[in-house]
Amino acid sequence: MLGIWAADLLGLSVFRERPLSAGLEKEVLGEQVVVQGILKERTEREENFSICLTHTFLIFHSKKIPINNLKIYMEELVALPLGTQAEIRGILKEIEGPSNPGEFDSKLYCETQGIYYQMSQGELLRYSRGYSRYQEAVSQVKERLIQCFQEIAGKHAGVFQAMILGDKSNLDESIKSQYQLAGIIHILAISGLHLSVLGSGLYRLMKRLGAGNGLAGVVSLMLILQYGVLTGESVATMRAVTMFLMGIGAKMLGRCYDLLTAMSMAAILILLECPACLYYSGFLLSFGAVLGLGWILPVLEAAFSGIRLLKPFLGAASVNLVMVPLLLYFFSEVSLLGLLLNLLVIPTVAAVLASGVGGALAGLIFLPLGKLLILPGRVLLELYDILGTLCCRLPFCSWVGGKPQLWQMTVYYGILILAVEGLRRVSREQVRRPALVRGLWVCTCLLSLNFLGWKDREGLRITCLDVGQGDAIVWEKEGGECYLMDGGSTSQSQCGIYQILPYVKSRGISRITAAFITHTDEDHYNGIAQILEAQIAHTTSVRIQKLILPAWKSRPKAYRDLEALAKKVGISVEYLKKGDVMVSGELRLRFLQPEQENDLEDINGGSLVAEMEYGNFRGMFTGDTGEEQELEILEELHPCTYLKVAHHGSKNSSCEEFLKRVKPKLSVVSVARNNLYHHPHPDTMERLRKWSSQIYMTKDKGAVMLWTDGDTVRAKGFQHKEG
């Protein structure tokens, strides 16, 4: 593992080498091409139908070029059995990585599955008559089990489906968020616990029925291998399967089973197959949990053997000491109440699994029997829901520590290794004051964990997030105050949940002091509304503390809906107009628009327009204001350092007179690639180039991040995307 990581840091090609050369990618990406491959997976959703091909070849100039696996979004439903060889035409595209800090890395996730490209507008040209009867049979069994869960498990069907079949397609996002906040999301992943219930249960049953070690072991091994295939062969599943196989193999051969040896062998096999897994959260979290149990737990049991009250907590503490940095790195927050809740969940989850498996198998034969057998599992899941909801309502449910830097994680793990090995050595020797040693050890671990949450809070940080066609700007100032200026998109689904919240949490922020909405176009407020709705549902640990709206006399429905939503959350609403001023320390905001007499037919013209001052730094935030309003405030404008370009670079904004007055040193355009409005307009870009020294567009740079201490200014894009 260290070798792969070191080689990657040195720039040596380990797993980042793509199947196609850079020159060939330029020729085929974005173009219509033909591919051939074997159908591996079908996924039908309300919004689309997709398939995955394995052993895929790109047909280019009569040559067949291998491109590994390929995800294809089809124009229409394709009813082909798995294992069919198909030829498909469509638009070949690159899979984009995250464009904002904290955002989920779908590119890396696809690489762990051997997928480097995707295809849209897929059209089936021809296919073979032959197919894999085994693959199709497994798929049909899985589909029947999913249907059975839908009929016998009620509202908990999605949870049973995720726990037992590894399929989260029907799992409600609110349940997933609730389980994550409560610290019990691990039960939704196939793990060693699942296999011990299924495989070890069968092994012991066969032994009781008189089977020998060999027969019981072989049958158990075959069952678990088939179960791994049925559940999708995820990294966590294959880790658990490999370790289970080694455990059963040890029993069959009369050998001792060593947890850390089995874990190491599983890691080696997975990384040999897919080195990209080294950076994948599923791999690191799965193996991290086992490492905690195999390495730290024996030390803690020896050191704290005389304190019976702590015994139930030692397993969870061992796992968390390894997992907390990883959880912060990938999710930016850690559940604080999970340690307590897992005291109930872990001992009872085996009953949920057994009940779910028994109910599903019985339901395939006789539905009423399936409903009866799954009832205990449903009762336990209902209990998990109630306790999880109670946990999520508490203000200290989770710690939003933010995403630590690699040097922080290196220091933490270095201290952890020294602390654990030191405690191991002390436990073997007789010390005069063992209580003092244990207390110092616990304090060292807690201080090290707190160190992971350190963030540089000096100066002012402004981040214009890439939310596609929309606006979302986050300000952070010293002291930890955070403000959100707009938050919405018409091209990104649920931008509040998938772009804004991950960024805010990655910065270790759990409180947004105020959210400004410049006007009520959907691409400026729907993400903020999503966050407020998540607050009501208790599925986020981030809280907006105040909502600020333009002081309009004529208020459209969206405006009234936002007021009602804020009231439901229990936060205050403030209204700002021309001439109002807000001051927070060195930060000063002066509002130049709107007038209170607004025109409902020109929502954009009623946008909040704010001038920011921070030392010698001056910024302009313009919403979707138009040329008419820009001309009205000309006399109040000053040259500025930073300009958030109005209306995504529309032709009717950022007029010549306005730009001549503000003369921005840095202009930021928040806009989606290939948007329907053809923003930014070429005329606007020409004017910006004339009056602005630097222009950043989110469609090219991803999130645009600026830092200033009031004098010095540093700006950069999160990524570079070829426009």
Summary?
The protein is α/β, with parallel strands linked by helices.
Question: What report would you give on this structure?
Answer:
This protein is of the alpha/beta class and 723 residues long. The protein has four domains: 2-130, Nucleic acid-binding proteins (OB fold (Dihydrolipoamide Acetyltransferase, E2P)); 138-279 and 347-396, no CATH class; 280-336 and 404-454; 460-711, Metallo-beta-lactamase, Chain A, CATH 3.60.15. Helices cover 46% and strands 20% of the residues. The protein has 24 helices and 25 strands. The strands form five sheets. It has an eight-stranded mixed β-sheet with strand order 16-15-13-11-10-9-24-25. A seven-stranded mixed β-sheet has the order 17-18-19-20-21-22-23. β20 (617-621), α21 and β21 (642-644) form a beta-alpha-beta unit. The two termini are 36 Å apart. 44% of the residues are buried. This is Metallo-beta-lactamase domain-containing protein. Keywords: Cell membrane, Membrane, Transmembrane, Transmembrane helix. Residues 471-673 form the Metallo-beta-lactamase domain. It is a multi-pass membrane protein.
